[in-house]
Design goal:
heterodimer; A: 382 residues; alpha+beta; Butyryl-Coa Dehydrogenase, subunit A, domain 1; Butyryl-CoA Dehydrogenase, subunit A, domain 2; Butyryl-CoA Dehydrogenase, subunit A, domain 3; 3 domains; four-stranded antiparallel beta sheet; three-stranded mixed beta sheet; 51% helix; B: 391 residues; four-stranded mixed beta sheet; 10 strands; globular
Chain lengths: 382, 391
Amino acid sequence: MTGGLTDDQKTFADSLDRLLTDALPFTRRQAAVATRVGFDDDVWQQLADLGCMAAAFPEEHGGLGGGPEDLMVIGEKFGRHLVTGPFLGSVVLGGHAVLFSSSDAWKADVLPGVAGGTTKLALAWTERQARHDLHDVATSVRQVNGGWVLSGRKDVVPGGAQADVIVVSARVSGDRRDRDGIVLVAVPADAPGVVRLDGRAHDGNRVSTILLDGVEVDDTQFLTAPDQGLAVLERAVDHAIAFVCADAAGSMWQIFETTLEYLKTRRQFDRTLASFQALQHRMVDLYIDCELAWSMVLDATEALATPRRRHAVSSAKVAVGESARRVAEEGVQLHGGIGMTMDVPVGHHLKRAVVMNASFGDADHHLDLLATSPVTRESSHV
Amino acid sequence: MSEDIERFREEVRAFIREALPDDLREKVRREHAGLTPADTSRWMRILHGRGWSCPSWPVEHGGPGWSFEQQYVFERELALNDAPPVSVFSAGMVGPALIEFGTHEQKERFLPGLANGNIILCQGYSEPEAGSDLASLKCRADRDGDDYVINGSKIWTSDASWANWMFGLFRTDSSGRKQHGITLLLVDMATPGLSVRPILTFEGGSELNQVFFENVRVPAANRLGPEHEGWSIGKYILGLERIGSAEVSRTTAMLGRLKEIAAQEPLRDGYLIDDADFSRKLVRAEIALRQVELTERRFLFGQDDAGAEASLLKIKGTEVQQQVISLMVEALGPYGQLDPDDMSARDNAPLPDAAHHVAKTCFNLRKSTIWGGSSEVLKNIIARSVLDLRS
C-alpha cells in the first residue's frame, strides 16, 4: 500500500520490515522504552548493520550514497514498528546539519561515525521564547579574549541524551529574531559548561534540555558563517520533517491495517463489527487519509533537493500531522476498550502522532509560513 | 522528456489564449455560471479544428493520440486559462466506450459528431426509484423486430433540454439478478414519444430534467454492446467519469480566482488576504487540493494500479471544490448574500462582475458530491472492493 518506491527501495524496505518484525516485536519495544536510555542497543546495532544510518550519506563520508528517499523508507518502517532511539536526532538532524555545513573538517571527523552508528549527534535549536520559529535565537556566542563563549538554553533536543556532539544554533550578531547572524556550533557533550537534563516524550523517545553556561569554543567549532546558519538549520529541519512525515504515514498505515483486521474479527450483536456500515465508512475515511498522506510524503521527499522544498515540506507537515492524529484517535475509538490499554499498540501510535505534531512546528505555524510565502501569494497559475 | 512536455504546454497555452472566445472566458470566470452545453459544443468545434477536442482518443479514431501526461497537461491548461473543459460525456465517456465496445458502423456514425461538438449528449441513468441503487432501474426497452420500444422515465438528467442524443441504461430483462438485463442504448432525443421536463434546482438553475418515454422506438443498431449486458459498460463509463470528476484542474483555477478576490476585498487597513485566519483557511484548502492532485497523479502515472481506489479522488476532489467555492462566497463578506439573478442587486453592489456569480455556483456545486456516485455510495464501493468489508 506504499507505492511510489523503486524496486531497490522496496527490497530495502522489506529487509528493514523483517528485521524490525523479528528484533522488535511490540513487547520488546515496550521493554526498550522502559530502559534508562529508551531504546534497544542491540536493535540499533542491527539497524546499523543493515545500513540504515549510512543510507542517506555520500560515500565520501562513509555513507551508502543514497538520500532522502532512503530516509523516507526508513521513517515509514520506524513509524509502523514504533521504533525509538536517537536516529532522528543523530542521523537526520545532527548528521544532515553537518552534511549541509561548510566545515569539511567536521564532515570528515564525525560523519563516518554517524553513518556507522557509533558516533551520535544531536541538533539543538528550541528555546523557551521561540515557540516554533527557527530564527528566534537568544543563545549567544560572543568573542572573549580571542576565543568564543557560548551561553544559553535549548529544550526538547531529540537524541540529546545519547549525543557525543551537540550542534547548537547560536546568535553571533543582530537582534533576537533577525534571520541573519545565526551560526551553528558543534559542541562536545562533555565540554565544560554543558549541562544535560534528560526527559521523556510521549512516544518513549528521550529529549533533553541543554544548558550552555559559558562554554568555551574556538573557530574550528563553527559549522557555518553567520549568514548561513539559518539556511543550514532550516534545511536540516526540513529533512527531519519529511522523515517524521514518513514515520507518521507508516504509523497511519499500521493503525489502519490493524484496526481493519480487528473489525473483521471482533464480533458483537452476533455479527462482525466490519459488517456495520457506519464503521465501514469510518474505515474508508482512514484509508483515504493514509493514501493522501502518503502522496504528501512522496512529494515532500522528492522536493527536498529542489526550490519547492519549503513549500512542499510545510504542506506535508500540516496535512500528514493532522491526518496522523485523526487516524490514531479513530484507531483507538474503533478498537473500543482494548484500544485504551497499555499492551495494545494503537494508543502508542496516538502518542507518536501527538509528539510529531508538537515537533518541528505545528499546523498553525506551517500554515502561517505558507500563507506569507510568495509561492502562495502569486496564485496557483503554475 | 519533461522538456517536451513543457514545449507541449506552451503550445497548448498559446492556442487557448488565441482561440478562446471572450464570452466563454467570462462565463468560466463566473465559475461556470451560465455556461451551457451549447457553449461547450462551440468550444469543442474550435478545439476540433486543431484536432484537440477529444484528448484521450487514439489517432485512428480522430484523436490526438496523446500520452496520459499530455492529456493531463492539456486539461490543466484549459482550466488555468479560463477555458471550458471539453465535453465529459462526448470526449471522456461515450467516445471511449464506443471505441472500446462499439461496432464499426457505430464508430463511423457517432465519433465524428462527438468530436466536432454536433452531438450533445445527456446521460440517462438515474430513475425516480433508482438513484444510488442504480441497478434497480426499471425504464423498459422491449424488443420489437429491429427496434426497442422504451417506456418509463429517467430523472436528474443533466442537459437533457440541450441534448440531441442520450446514452441510457434500460431494462430489457427482469427475470434474473438486477445487474443482468440492462441494455445501453443511444437514443435520438427527437424521437416521437420522448419528452423533457426541466427540474428547477434551488440555486435557480435548470440543468436537471426528467425525461419521459412513451413508446419511444429506438433501432437495435443504436445498442452499445450486447443485449442485457449494459451494466458492465455503464460501469465502465462511470469509472471513466470518476477520475476526471475529481476536477483538480478546475479547483486549482478556482483557488487562483479566490486569491484574486481575497487580494481585492478590503479588510481593516488592508486586504482580506493579509488576514491570518482567512489565509490559513485558504492555505488549508490549497493543501487539501494538493493532496488530491498528487494522489491523482500517483494513480494515473505511477506504478500504483488504481481500480476502486480511484473513487477516493472523486470523494475528496468534490469535497475540496465545495470548500473552495464556499470560501469564495465568504471572501465577498456582506456582498456574499446577494442573489446574482437579481439585476438590481447586481448593479448596485460594487463588485467585479465575475464575483457576483460565485454564490450561485456555490449552491450549484452541492451536486458534485451527489452525482456520478454519491460520496456515500463511493465509500461503500471502497469498503467492499478495497478493504474487503462485507455487510
